[in-house]
Amino acid sequence: MKFKIQIYLKTFILIACFATPSLKAQFSSSTELLYRLRMQNIDTLFSIYYNPAIKPYIEESTTTNKLKTEKVISVFNFYNSFIENELSKRNLPLSLQYLPLALTQMDIRYQGEYHRSGAWALSIFIAQKYGLNVTNEIDERFDFYKSTTAACNYLQELYQLYGNFWDVVIAYANGASGLETAKIRLQAKHTNIWDIYENSNLFNKNIIPLTFSFAYIANYYQEHELKLKEYQVINSETIYLKAAIYVTDLYTQLELSENDFYAVNPILLKCDCLKECNIHLPLKSYDLFATKEDTLYEMYKATQLYLDSIAKAEVELVKKESEIIYYTVKKGDNLGYIARRYHVTVSDLKKWNQLKNDNIYIGERLIIRKN
Predict the structure, then answer these.
(1) Do 71 and 107 meet the contact criterion of CB atoms below 8 Å apart?
(2) Three-state SS for 248?
């Protein structure tokens, strides 16, 4: 069967290259028919609502962005069984599994508009509502397993509210208020998804063709000769930091790249130092840390002492400068008068201003120290 489909596609390509415009039009419609038939095998939701607007998304992902798509689908395949399990536990349509593909291309460290982050593009409000910890130090939206659970809980709430697959998808990507606003503007309670796509101003209306196209690619990447590589997860061990360390020192001493460190610590936000907390290290760095641990703590202390000394020196300099008054000599002034006015001695004035005698001149600037 697969062999016949390949011959079928090659025939289409020859027609597209050498046929007349009318035959090319037939070829285009035949390609779209093939897409529609394949989507029916995925879910009738996709075949019923198929639209020609989907075709460019499929073709761009399988040609121009082929290498990126191969990586994206590899990540998706690795996590897919967990996503399906979470959806099944809530009796949600399994086709919702394609949402993180459409939203972020499975980018676990995604940071987008409106403070949406993680592979499921969760807002801070929704993340915290469903139990994720989002602080200045950590963000559990970057933990794929925890964020998937939170996202599925949110999808369950949306499904109870709308009971319609595409309404749920649009509401998830644009906010429930965004979906309702789009429907009101189009003056229809049950609006066709392509009416919303073509006539609304939703900030993320591309979620519609993207969901179609990635659902198709996830199931038919082999037919487009996409070659997937097995997604490699870095094995790690947990360690507890007993004192503060600088993250850059950690990279240097353990010969560790920043990408590898955050790959095993996805919820940690990028920072200068870490203190008294659990972190994960790749297995290759675990033993090395045991030999470098005390050195890392000492490096932090030494740097802090150096920074403290600079800070103290700056404070002293500011303090000294704040104790100085600059006085401009006026007509009739003499050192005795100026000394009495500022409660200092003539000797002090001569010392501070390196004066060899009592002579001063109009317009001359004298230094007077308060203390």
Answers:
(1) no
(2) helix
Residues 93 and 167 in one domain: yes
* Same domain flag for 212 and 250: no
Amino acid identity, position 111: Q
For residue 314, how many other CB atoms are within 10 A of its CB? 10
Cβ atoms of residues 214 and 101 within 8 Å: yes
Could you give phi then psi for residue 72, rounded to 5 degrees?
-60, -45
**312: Cβ contacts below 8 Å, ≥ 6 apart:** none
Q: What is the pLDDT of residues 176-221, one digit of tens each?
A: 666 666 665 566 555 678 888 888 778 888 999 999 999 999 999 9
Partnered with residue 281 across adjacent β-strands are 237
- Stretch among 11-25, 126-140, 348-362 having the lowest mean pLDDT: 11-25
Residues 102, 159: one domain?
Answer: yes
CA distance 268 to 270: 6
Q: Cα separation of 315 and 248, whole Å?
A: 28
Residues counted in the chain:
371
Helices and strands, number each (H, E), in the chain: 17, 6
In a shared domain, residues 270 and 295: yes
Category of 363 on φ-ψ map: left (φ > 0), alpha (ψ -120 to 50) or beta = left
Query: E-assigned strands of 53-144?
Result: none
CA gap 298, 244 in Å, rounded: 9
pLDDT digits (tens, 9 = 90+) for 110-146: 999 889 999 999 999 999 999 999 998 899 999 999 9
Please check whether residue 11 lies inside any domain of the structure.
no
Q: Which of 144-148, 273-277, 329-333 has the highest mean pLDDT?
A: 144-148
Count of domains forming the chain:
3
User: By the 8 A CB rule, do 227 and 70 touch?
Assistant: yes
Query: 122 is in which domain, residue-wise?
Result: 42-224
The model carries a pTM of: 0.72
Of the candidates 78, 100, 105, the residue with the CA atom closest to the CA atom of residue 234: 78
